[in-house]
Design a protein that fits this description.
The protein has 251 residues and is of the alpha/beta class. 34% of the residues lie in helices and 25% in strands. The structure holds adenosine-5'-triphosphate (ATP).
Length: 251
């Protein structure tokens, strides 16, 4: 499993123009192979920009971003991205959505059925294979999104507030289920969120960013044991981490 290394990365939108805006300033980060990482910070500190660069959607104005020593350039199936808004195709059933990537790459019908069965089960959608997205709740559509990214078997999962639009209870269920899926394959995950509790519950490492321009303010290693359980959210250790991180954020 690969490691992501970000070195001396700076990004300025509209460089050289009167309205140029430096959103990321000298970022140095390593996301270890197989680790679950979260990025938190106030709105506008550049979290999504950093994640989109890791996806290869655009290049930094300065510095490098490497995956296994190779400079990240352009999008690649090895780096799967889940956005806040679900990207489910409304004209495909749940199963067809999930096997979309492999089908595009020419997987046989038998392989597609196998992938559909594996991932509908893994993301908790068994029994819903033939449903249409319009028949699903927001949480279920998110499950389709995650299943579809996993079905591509990426090495890295980049998640931009994937549960941001869900109610609190659904969100907690999705977090636990995501950890279950992740623990079976240990892909390298980078998860952007506003929600400190979500970051602490999920991650091995939390990057706290400060804004204007976005910089790495602090890195918190989370040593809570795995598997994580909902009861841990109420422990003193958890609450103390949350309080400490909350005080670091620019409010
Ligand atoms: N394509 C773009 N062109 C110009 N400015 C941009 C572009 N994309 C983002 N920005 C600016 O860059 C800054 C960082 O945006 P970004 O979306 O990365 O922040 P964020 O930390 O993810 O915010 P949020 O938590 O609100 O999603 C913002 O000031 C935003 O307006």
């Amino acid at each position: 499993m690969p490691e992501i290394r970000i070195e001396n990365l700076t990004h300025t939108f509209g460089k050289g123009q009167p309205n140029e805006l430096t959103v990321l300033d000298n970022i140095n980060l390593t996301f270890e192979s197989g680790s679950f990482n979260a990025i938190v910070g106030t709105s506008g500190c550049g979290k999504s920009t950093l994640l989109k660069m890791m996806a290869g959607l655009f290049a930094p104005s300065d510095g490098t971003m490497k995956l296994d020593e190779q400079i990240i350039q352009g999008t690649d199936r090895r780096r799967g991205m889940v956005f806040q808004q679900d990207a489910v195709f409304p004209w495909m059933t749940v199963a067809r959505n999930i096997s979309y990537g492999p089908r595009l790459r020419g997987a046989s019908a038998a392989d597609q059925r196998e992938i559909e069965a594996k991932w509908t089960q893994a993301v908790g959608l068994k029994g819903f294979e033939d449903r249409w997205p319009r028949e699903l709740s927001g949480g279920m559509r998110k499950r389709v999104d995650i299943g579809r990214v996993y079905a591509n078997d990426p090495d890295v999962l980049l998640m931009d507030e994937p549960f941001g639009a869900l109610d609190a209870q659904t969100k907690e269920r999705m977090q636990s289920d995501l950890l279950d899926t992740w623990s079976q394959s240990r892909k390298t995950v980078v998860f952007v969120t506003h929600d400190l509790e979500e970051a602490i519950f999920l991650a091995d490492k939390i990057v706290v960013m400060s804004a204007r321009p976005g910089r790495v303010h602090h890195i918190e290693e989370i040593t809570l044991p795995r598997p994580r359980t909902d009861a841990m959210r109420l422990t003193d250790e958890f609450i103390q981490i949350k309080r400490r991180l909350w005080e670091m954020l620019d409010h």
